[in-house]
Amino acid sequence: MKNKIDIDQLLKGNRSSLAKAITLVESKRPSDRVEAQKLIDQILPHTGRSIRIGISGSPGVGKSTFIESIGLHILEKEKKIAVLTVDPSSPVSGGSILGDKTRMEKLSRKSDVFIRPSPSSGASGGVTQKSRETILLCEAAGFDVIIVETVGVGQNEVSVSNMVDFFLVMLLPNAGDELQGIKKGIIEIADALAINKADGDTINVAQKTKSQYESALKLLVPHSFWKQQVITCSAIESKNIDKAWDMICEFQQTSKSGGFFQQRRAQQSKDWMWSLIRDSIEIELKSRPELTKIIPELEEMVTKELKTPQMAASEVVKKFFLN
Length: 323
Prior knowledge:
By secondary structure, the chain is an alpha/beta fold. It has 3 domains: 1-46, Single alpha-helices involved in coiled-coils or other helix-helix interfaces (Up-down Bundle), CATH 1.20.5.170; 48-258, Rossmann fold (3-Layer(aba) Sandwich), CATH 3.40.50.300; 270-322, Helix Hairpins (Orthogonal Bundle). It is built from 15 helices and 7 strands. It has helices at 7-11, 15-26, 30-43, 63-75, 95-103, 105-108, 131-140, 158-161, 176-181, 184-189, 203-217, 241-257, 260-287, 289-303, 309-322; strands at 51-57, 81-87, 113-119, 145-149, 166-171, 192-195, 229-232. The chain starts with 6 loop residues before the first helix and ends with a helix.
């Protein structure tokens, strides 16, 4: 990357420096990866002081409207907010960048708000491959609240909860239909559920949905310190948005007083380390000529059932460590 990152300006909250830093950590160029790691090492002592919030939900549930509504409420508490949204479309089109700015028009105009859309680039878990590094950069830049809006709800969405302090799943007031459609694993890791669009003719349906989820949560093993909550809200009418924020603050206070907050972040750091190890091995594996030559051959043999996946994988691993 040609433009060197001014760390002093980044730590002062300079938006241009922050944007350049995020672009650097998202780069796939080998030289940029080295520089990005040096940057993260330098800013690490200035991180960790925010509350990290993950927000997930199926398309159309109103995540962006909710984030704008709760964001405007949080600003009243004199806090700086960074919103990281994941673009599921092609990184070339840049289509969702305009969409995010449009959906959060009021929030994006505020001086204490930073909104950054990033391409998912095929990464699983509803987040980008560099979401953790981006969170750290925003913390170093002085943001008090980091909100990560993720792509839909899928089986790999679990990884979102492994990089935030509070994980909120948003649902539509569809009662039984939604209850059947949501993944059980997502509900188990959610710290709270928010039934959005509880306004107009859907208020009664939203209350029914809330009751059904509360009953379903009773069957799950609870957190050691926190009882999962279900709330109804209307992001477009800003109804119960204050309750949502109060709930997040209560969670943070409760988790910190019991030591769970620190334990959770420590475990997340350990998981991040192993994730980086796996990524590094895969990158190295795909860069070796002697392996890039045999891997397509092994893949073809596996698809034709001439070799088991286990045997093929074992062959690759042996060649990888022997060279």
